[in-house]
Amino acid sequence: MSNNLKDRRVRFNSNPVTEVRSSFPASSTSMQVYHPTPPYSPVSTSPIPQPYLRSPRTALIHTLDDDSLLNIFHLYRPFSLGEDEDDEAHLSGGNSTWNLERWWYKLVHVCRRWRYLILASPSHLSLCLVCTHGTPVVDMLAHSPLFPLIIDYLGDITAEDEAGVLFALEQHDRVRRVRFQLPVPKLQKLITAINEEYPVLEHLIMGPLIEDNNPILILPERLQAVHLHHLRLTSFALPIRSRLLTTAAGLVTLNLIIHHPSAYFPPSTLIQWLSFMPQLETLVILIFPVRNLDVERQLTRTPVVTRLTLPNLRWFGFQGISAYLEAVVHRVTTPRLEKLQILFFNQLTFSVPHLKQFMSRTESLRLASATSKFSSKEVYMEVYPRTRKETEIYTLRICVLCCHLDWQVSSVAQIFNSLSQMFSSVERLTLEFDEHSRSSEEQSEVDRAEWREFFGSFSNMTTLLVDDELIEKFSHCLRLDSGELPLKPVLLPINPQTPGVYIHPALAAPSLLYDIRSHPSGSNPRLSPAVLTTPASSPPLPSLALRVGDLPWLFTVWPDAGHSPENAVVTVQDVLLAIYFHLRTAVKGDEYEAMSRSRKVEIFRAFDSRVRTDQIQRGKGLRRVDLLRGRFHAQGLVRAQSKDSVWDVVIQ
After folding, report:
1. Which residues of 452-481 are buried (b: 16+ CB within 10 A; e: fewer)?
2. Of 640, 650, 633, 635, which Cα lies nearest the Cα of 501?
3. 8 Å CB contact between 470 and 431
4. What is the number of helices (H) and of strands (E) in the chain?
5. What is the spatial distance between Cα 623 and Cα 348, in angstroms, rounded to a whole number?
6. Which H/E stretch holds residue 468?
7. How far from each other are the two terminal CA atoms of the chain, in whole angstroms?
8. Which residues are bridge partners to 237 per DSSP?
9. What are 207-263's pLDDT values in tens digits?
10. Poorest-confidence range of 44-53, 362-371, 584-593?
């Protein structure tokens, strides 16, 4: 059917009707059908006389030939699978029940001609019998034509319904669509009944009535449907050699939702299944939290899989952890991808180098404008092929589930920094904000560095639109420093020092004794306000270059101009604050991935020791302080042996 004809189809919403049996004339008992009221009397099957058609009192509908009527009936068919709804509704088979497939029940009661014309064209009109709540299935099938069956049960079912479903499932060669959303015990009982081949099954949608982490539904290994087009399974454990997944060569839509850890399947298994699905157009995989390290261990034991190309894939959706996504996109190419949707759970670090390569291999992803929204539970970025006013259909959506603003900025900055090459075409950026948990004041300087990294991912941005409530929160991050331009990478000059420069005795090792896990205060370290405001060096300097322990990063301490704006020099307090904020910088994904496995273990132990039961700090992830591996006491500063201009912070 052409697109212009398809667009003319109307949505049909009929009121619930009571079903009764209606008999055909004795000469056509094979055409008996189960219809809604009102019943009608047997009528002749002879064609309508031509003189009657030419009568001036004949209704205009009778002047149409059979082909024209069939075309009208074809266009009258409703959208019952969510074709006119959003993508998410389409995955679940539409937001409406499949009762709409009873559209033809009333039409066959209009007149004898319509009745026989419709019943004689079941394939053209896609006629089906619907089994749903309250349907006397056994009685209906006994008195109806051998039309395909649609089985649709959403919610709890009675014992009579259950018996009817089991009877309908026994008609293997007639079941066209199945959708179950039932309590787990009843759903598991029905699942055991479909351990067979269903040659005409096109849609299979199954899941528990209430999504729960506890129940595990087992997909029968012998179930297969060679003509399956649409598959959505929720909370199922899938056999690796499942016939359903290895014989559905014509599958167009695959949506797998995994809640229970025992139902988890590794990326290599998913790719193996996908290799049997060359016609796939929609792939949406939702896997609830599995630790990144667990995935990494499995990947080390999994053989390398040959690269796979899905030539027809248009929409790829993923929910889970970055390590799993990286393992998949590293091996898959989708040249015609038009929509990429990603949701990450909160992680300590994000490393997505393969995602960047995956996107670069896709020809259809157009990125022109972007909108990022910071809300109470998540932060997301939607990227559009044109300006948002021109289209509301995004090409790319990346979401991270996390709460605090500083945590959100850190997460997306890591991800976007890896994808900065892909964002080079984005010229318009919009930032939106919903009131939610504020970042603590002590994180303001960390926010500044991470905001800079966030904006640095959009190197060719020409227009920035910001929500009023968000301007105040990050305006301090964009203030101009000496010789620095806004929205450009921060390059901090390190002023040369001379051997004649001496550090303040309070900062000199080993006398400092500062616990770097906590914000500096009068009791940590034990320094008076007078000492804290004293210049950190002699002679006083406008900046100091520091490095903490064996960490590789150099950073510059600048004076707080608020204390002495006319003749600002670095004070003892400036040094302590700079150390603290530097160690609160988030660890980037590539920095973490470059470490050995043994060091990662040490870092996680240090992280657990630092955050303990503080869920907010735990959720913010790894910081540079954790890379010190449990050494939390700064003893003071010593001159670096390699460079006279750098001071090392001694950590024990």
Report:
1. bbbbbbbeebeeeeeeeebeebbeebeeee
2. 640
3. yes
4. 22, 27
5. 9
6. helix 468-474
7. 75
8. 218
9. 998 765 556 788 888 899 999 999 999 989 888 888 999 899 999 999 999 888 878
10. 44-53
Return the half-sphere exposure (C-beta side, CA atoms, 13 A cut-off) of residue 28: 19
Q: Which among 235, 114, 232, 100 is positioned nearest to 178, based on CA atoms?
A: 232
Three-state DSSP class for 378? strand
Name residues whose C-beta falls within 8 Å of residue 120's C-beta, 6 or more positions apart in sequence: none
C-alpha distances (whole Å) from 50 to each of 59, 61, 70, 108, 117 are 13, 14, 19, 22, 17
Do strands 369-374 and 428-433 pair parallel, antiparallel, or not at all (unpaired)?
parallel
Kindly report whether the peptide bond that precedes residue 525 is cis, defined as omega within 30 degrees of 0. Answer: yes
C-alpha to C-alpha distance for 547 and 342, rounded to whole angstroms: 37
Residue that is written with structure tokens 């001071």 in the block: 647
d(CA 128, CA 139): 16
Which pLDDT does position 484 carry in this prediction? 43
Contact 129, 149 (CB under 8 A): yes
Q: What is the C-alpha to C-alpha distance for residues 231 and 252, in angstroms, rounded to an integer?
A: 8
Structure confidence by residue, pLDDT tens digits, 153-193: 998 999 999 999 999 999 999 999 999 999 988 998 999 89
Report the alpha-carbon distance of residue 254 to residue 90 in Å, rounded: 12
Residue with tokens 């968000």: 470
CA angle centred on 155, ends 152 and 161, rounded to 5°: 60
